[in-house]
Amino acid sequence: MLTIVMPVLDEAATVVDALRRLQDLRARGCAVIVVDGGSHDATADLARPLADRVAVAPRGRAVQMNAGAALAQGDALLFLHADTLLPPDADRCIADALAGGADWGRFDVRIDGAHPMLAVVGWSMNLRSRLTAIATGDQAMFVRRDVFTAVGGFPDIPLMEDIALSRTLKRRGRPACLRPRVTTSGRRWQKHGVLPTILLMWRLRLAYFLGADPGELAVRYGYRPARR
Q1: Which of 104, 105, 116, 196 has the fewest beta carbons under 10 Å from its own?
Q2: Given the DSSP bridges, would you call strands 142-144 and 76-79 parallel, antiparallel or unpaired?
Q3: Could you list the residue ranges that cross the membrane (predicted)?
Q4: Cα–Cα distances in Å, from 54 out to 8, 17, 49, 81, 110?
Q5: Using CA atoms, how far apart are residues 58 and 61, in angstroms rounded to an integer?
Q6: CA distance 79 to 74
């Protein structure tokens, strides 16, 4: 069984639509676990009728996703952002990939938005992922639950947790790079401008690979980590 883990924070405006899109998958046996990071709006209350479980965890995408994975009972995990839409047959695609011997994988991604550069960004993300065997959260990463547990889950860092997990998982084997596309919102690119956001993300990723502290990078990205 596939368990979909969705970390959320102040997503009252979008969480209902996001979960409604998963109801066909639930009808086919997939479980949906929503993990709220301490929203100040009605996110958790809105999610409860549309999810199998709504949990609360300290704020931080990695922490929230690990908390959701710990509650899962299925043999495969899919980590899904609230602003990302899965293809209708995502469960079957994942089952086929895992049955074919893959331990983990991701989907190709399309970025929703009117700016023509967003199509280029999505294409480059997919190509880079195939060349490097590194996946990002926007690509809806999936993994066998026992493998996820064996590698210790997502590292507890406030940014680049998806890249860090990918680097660990690819030591076990390359990801299944599925051609069906997930569609993710272009809101973060459009908020500050597509080109400035692309350049910022390139700089942050390079800095991370050169050993920069993820906490400092998160602040540069505009995220304020929760106090521990």
Answers
A1: 116
A2: antiparallel
A3: none
A4: 10, 16, 9, 15, 28
A5: 9
A6: 13
